[in-house]
Amino acid sequence: MTVTLHVCITCRAGQPVPEGEPVPGARLHDALAAEGAPDGVRIVPVECLSACANGAAIALSAPGRWTYVYGRMSAEDATEILLGAAAYAQAPDGIVPWRERVTIFRKRSLARIPPIG
């Protein structure tokens, strides 16, 4: 089963962005793509996760698993995000034990959504 790491590529993260410059969400997506997704994870750009006040935002989801939304991410967090995504992919229900979660996932969680069905 493939886990999806959604990355808001339109997020300005509350920052002014000069015309023609990439927004923080797009920079985050580029950094994640440059490092490459771990096994079982695909990185998907999305246009808005409606977490604008807490951007740049990402979400982890997969069928039959809990979905997590995280905010206040940046391109500098790419390595830790991918480590957290790999742990999520290995958890059968998407719930990684609290102490095993990467620090930014423990501290920057915006929402946890139950599986559908």
Describe this structure in words.
This is Metal-binding protein. InterPro entries: DUF1636 (IPR012863), Thioredoxin-like_sf (IPR036249). The relative contact order is 0.23. The two termini are 17 Å apart. The protein has helices at residues 24-35, 78-90, 103-107; strands spanning 3-8, 41-46, 58-61, 67-70, 109-113. Helix content is 26%, strand content 21%. Helix 1 (24-35) packs across helix 2 (78-90). The longest helix has 13 residues, at 78-90. With 117 residues, the chain is of the alpha+beta class. It has a 5-stranded mixed β-sheet with strand order 2-1-3-4-5. The protein has a single domain (3-113), classed as 3-Layer(aba) Sandwich (Glutaredoxin), CATH 3.40.30.10.
Summarize the structure in short.
The chain is built from 3 helices and 5 strands; from the N terminus they run E-H-E-E-E-H-H-E. It has 117 residues and is an alpha+beta fold.
Please give a handful of descriptors for the protein shown.
single chain; 117 residues; alpha+beta; Glutaredoxin; five-stranded mixed beta sheet; 3 helices; 26% helix; globular
